């Protein structure tokens, strides 16, 4: 539409205020999400569950497995970033435990929206036994407000991943082992970089007025999702047990297997990738 620039061109005619280093970081974030995306796996699961007559309990179990794979994908994406790598092992564990619950529910909504999972009564019926019709419908309505620019969605997910907190549920067990409890300010540097890049990218694509509207809409969606996710967590014991198990296993899996290094930004340092700075692999 009028006033909206054409897609990214990182090689020529760059009229944005993003410096080359910012373009590299933006490209790396996009590549990390794409490298570990659970989209194809989730689509296959949805297709299987909606086209075959199955026992309700089995369908619910498969849906739980699907959400577990989404959480694992998110953990791999976050742990592939340079900001995560510079943390101590205890700080990495604290960050995953602190934010994974909130960011995971947001990311699950994004993936389900991309798969059109909540667009039909058949697919929604898979989730209703687990969450109830009202909660499923609220998630669907919130997801319809997501920005169509998936780059913005990926950036807001990265911002949330390095936030001081993005879940409105008190968890004393996390606080007892929170290595970032007295050093939350250390997250601000990472978060501020991603916020600045997102804003400059929006100015480049949409101009100031449209960027302000989109940024406000993203924040509102984020707050609505955090509120809904927190209410579901507190009022749905099945979901609470599932969320606790998934987040605990995901965080513990990283700590146990972090010697098996996840590629930085999800790329092979011996290969090539357009717009990715190979010097970042070290």
Q: Rg, please?
A: 19 Å
Indicate the CATH architecture.
Orthogonal Bundle
Biggest sheet character: none
How many separate structural domains?
1
- CATH H-level superfamily: Retinoid X Receptor
Q: Number of DSSP helices?
A: 11
Query: How many angstroms separate the termini?
Result: 42 Å
What value does the average pLDDT take? 81
**Class from helix and strand fractions:** mainly alpha
Low-pLDDT parts are 1-7, 10-14, 269-282
CATH class: Mainly Alpha
Remind me, CATH topology?
Retinoid X Receptor
Shape: globular
**How large a portion of the residues is in β-strands, by DSSP E?**
under 5%
**Helix-strand topology string:** HHHHHHHHHHH
Helix percentage range: 55-70%
How does the SSE layout of this entry go?
Blueprint: H1 20-35, H2 39-51, H3 56-79, H4 82-85, H5 89-114, H6 121-131, H7 133-143, H8 150-161, H9 172-176, H10 185-235, H11 237-257
Which key phrases capture this entry?
282 residues, 11 helices, globular
Task: Describe the overall structure.
This protein is 69% helix and 0% strand. It has a single domain, classed as Orthogonal Bundle (Retinoid X Receptor), CATH 1.10.565.10. The chain has helices spanning 20-35, 39-51, 56-79, 82-85, 89-114, 121-131, 133-143, 150-161, 172-176, 185-235, 237-257. α3 (56-79) packs across α5. It has 282 residues and is mainly alpha-helical. The chain contains eleven helices and no strands.
């Amino acid at each position: 539409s009028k006033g909206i620039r054409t897609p990214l061109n990182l090689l020529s005619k760059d009229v944005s205020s993003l410096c080359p280093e910012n373009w590299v970081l933006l490209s790396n974030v996009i590549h990390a999400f794409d490298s570990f995306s659970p989209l194809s796996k989730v689509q296959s699961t949805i297709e299987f569950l909606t086209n075959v007559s199955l026992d309700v309990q089995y369908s619910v179990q498969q849906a739980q497995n699907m959400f577990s794979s989404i959480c694992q994908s998110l953990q791999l994406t976050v742990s592939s970033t340079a900001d995560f790598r510079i943390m101590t092992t205890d700080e990495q564990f604290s960050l995953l435990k602190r934010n994974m619950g909130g960011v995971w529910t947001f990311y699950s909504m994004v993936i389900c929206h991309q798969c059109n999972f909540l667009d039909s009564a058949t697919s929604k019926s898979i989730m209703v036994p687990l969450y109830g019709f009202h909660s499923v419908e609220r998630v669907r309505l919130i997801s319809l407000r997501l920005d169509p620019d998936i780059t913005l969605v990926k950036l807001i997910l990265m911002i949330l991943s390095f936030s001081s907190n993005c879940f409105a549920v008190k968890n004393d067990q996390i606080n007892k082992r929170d290595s970032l409890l007295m050093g939350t300010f250390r997250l601000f540097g990472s978060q501020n970089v991603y916020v600045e890049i997102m804003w400059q990218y929006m100015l480049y694509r949409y101009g100031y007025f449209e960027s302000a509207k989109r940024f406000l809409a993203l924040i509102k969606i984020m707050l609505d999702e955090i509120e809904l996710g927190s209410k579901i967590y507190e009022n749905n014991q099945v979901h609470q047990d599932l969320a606790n198990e998934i987040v605990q296993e995901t965080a513990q899996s990283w700590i146990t297997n972090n010697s098996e290094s996840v590629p930085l930004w999800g790329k092979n340092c011996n290969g090539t990738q357009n717009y990715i700075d190979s010097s970042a692999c070290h």
